[in-house]
Amino acid sequence: MPRDINDLAHATAYDSAGEKLGSVKEVFINDASGQPDFVEVGRGMLGLKSAIVPLKGHRLEGDSLHLSFAKDVIAKAPTPDDDAHLTPCDHDALFEHYGLNSGSAHAAEEAPTEYVDTEADQD
């Protein structure tokens, strides 16, 4: 796993105001580019809730991942049906929720996103 993806996988996420959200649970990798597109962030006291957040505009400083979205927006993010793979429809729903331009639907179909199991790497 490339170093930057490994660093993302072990980071603690913060919202756009610097408020702690929780640990990164999964990193979603774009099949076409091989680059991370989204992270799943544990939320709440025990991290039992989670949200998928785009990495657009993120900043990684040490083990702190600073995301470009407010906590309340992240909390209301749509939840994909399949944890292991983001479909083109998932991409569209997430981009729409976060107010981002998803590009064409055909581009999303050509580049679905899979996750990297971060818990397996922590052993």
Write up what this structure looks like.
This protein is an alpha+beta fold and 123 residues long. The chain has helices at 3-9, 71-75, 88-97, 105-110, and strands at 12-14, 20-30, 36-43, 49-54, 59-61, 64-66, 85-86, 113-117. It has one domain: Photosynthetic Reaction Center, subunit H, domain 2 (Photosynthetic Reaction Center, Chain H, domain 2). The chain is built from four helices and eight strands. Strands 1, 2, 3, 4, 5, 6, 7 and 8 form an eight-stranded mixed β-sheet that branches. It is globular, with a radius of gyration of 13 Å. It starts with a helix and ends in a 6-residue tail after the last strand.
Structural class: alpha+beta
- Tell me the Rg in angstroms: 13 Å
Strand count, sense and closure of the main sheet?
8 strands, mixed
Query: What would the average pLDDT be, to the nearest integer?
Result: 82
CATH architecture: Alpha-Beta Complex
| Unreliable parts | 104-112
In whole angstroms, how far apart are the ends?
15 Å
Query: Based on CA inertia axes, which overall geometry fits?
Result: globular
The CATH class turns out to be Alpha Beta
Helix content: 10-25%
GO cellular component, one term: plasma membrane light-harvesting complex
Organism: Corynebacterium uropygiale
Domain PRC-barrel: 5-71
Region (Disordered): 103-123
Give the tags:
single chain, 123 residues, alpha+beta, Photosynthetic Reaction Center, Chain H, domain 2, eight-stranded mixed β-sheet, globular, Bac_photo_RC_H_C, PRC_barrel-like_sf
